[in-house]
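notes to self, project folder thing:

trying the whole complex as one job this time. last attempt i did each chain seperately and stitching them together was a nightmare. two parts in total, labels are on each line so i dont mix them up again. if this works i'll redo the older ones the same way
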Amino acid sequence: MRAQTRLFVMILILGASEPRVADATEGHKLWPTIEAASEPARVDMPQAAEWVRGVHSEPVQIEGEAFGVETRSDKMKHTPCDGCHDGAFKKRSAGFGEGSDALAHEHIRLAHASKAIMRCETCHDTEAFTKLKSLGGEAVSFDHAYQICGACHMGELKDWRQGAHGKRLGNWMGPRIVLSCTGCHDPHRPVFPAKRHAVTVTLPSEWNRSK
Amino acid sequence: MLQSLLNKLVLWRNQRPPPRAASFGAKPLTRRRALGAMLKGGTITAVAVQQACDVTTDPPKLEETVLKWHEYFKGNFRLMTAEERGATVERLERLAELESGKHATISAQGPHEGVLFGYAFNISKCQGYGDCVKACVEENNLDRETGMQYIRIWEMKKGHMSLESANGRIAHDVPVEGHFYLGTQCFHCENPPCVDVCPVGATWKEKDGIVVIDYDWCIGCRYCEAACPYWGRRFNWGAPSLADQVNQTQHYLGNRPRKKGVMEKCTFCVQRTREGRQPACVEACPTGARVFGNLLDPNSEIRKILATKKVFRLKEELGTEPKFWYYMD
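result (full assembly):
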């Protein structure tokens, strides 16, 4: 009898203390909901366009994707090129304009792939330097630098046009305007620089609770 | 013996008369209604007493008292009608104005039809800069004094995937060679355990997938904090000290300053995202490691990431279905 009672009590205790194990089969499943949405959602949110209103952009169309890319040529500090340079790219002859910065490009240290692969003239046109030059020799505007970068970084270009790489501006719906490669990367030194972590982490035990 | 006891219990339960509401006029008088009537009477009395005792009869102070009384006895946001929501928003805006002299806009915008928010985080791209955390603190009016943060950035050794061995307190230059960085915050689970355990219904999942908290209904028991497998929830140890750095564009369920002793957490910046804007962390990220969008739109970036990249979520085996994916190049 005592053994039976003990067993009964044990069963009661075990039964009561059994943790609730969330089973992957119970509850709402997310994937079927997502998959079922095969049509573009019609969301009524006209204000989404507001968040990119002031952004200057150029239309892009590649591989069936159409979006905007933020312009760069209007943000370049030392333009127009022929304000200082005349003639050949490397030759900075008498033509420095009034008030121009003679050391405009002196800070540039090329650290992009090896010197055997990348030089100034790989991307810059030595003749018509107001534009970039593709590997095939075609002139490309500074606003469409992704065409130059994508010639080598094909995987990144694919991810970029789909939105897995790069950065969209302002909104999550409505007109899609993204940064070009040069919007985030310094083309002369594309690896992100090291910098100090922006915040200090405080644990709850260290918080000041006197308030 | 046990069986007969059980039978007796069932019989007793069945014979018990059903709970009957006392009748009062046309409407049945329930406990809730009676309490409500008493409280209304109490408000009037208290205001009268306040007015009688206050020698100066300072009108703004009286207004504040009245507003605070009404605020104290309002209902759960989820159960409020549109008018009631409008009224509480108006009261809160006025109270904030009386307190700080500045006008705050508090939105009560509900979820949009056809939207289910999802988030993707690129662990190949994150450099651990922490700009997202900073932006979040500023956007969401997080208490500066206790150093409240919703986002945590973890420094992980390459080849290791355990947060147990990760460094969650980065205090040096980043990135560090041989490490990658992973950010956590509220994952807005489709089956949120934190919502299941709330004893007062102060937290719930909205139609657009955002898990929100009614700060005025929360009792601060912290069950949800314990139930969250991701350490996504935070407890307010102090009234937020913000000085003059208050973000005045607010949402009732979002970044309006919380009071001491309630839970809070990431809301996917509900005050921004329901207006079509990106969350503050996404906007601040200098590496583009954060992607936010509509899971119900097959043309959205988030859907393309889910379709074309290697993605994973944390503790997927729990069945919580977080709407926060990690991916890599």
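what i see at first glance: The mean pLDDT of chain A is 82.
need to look closer tmrw
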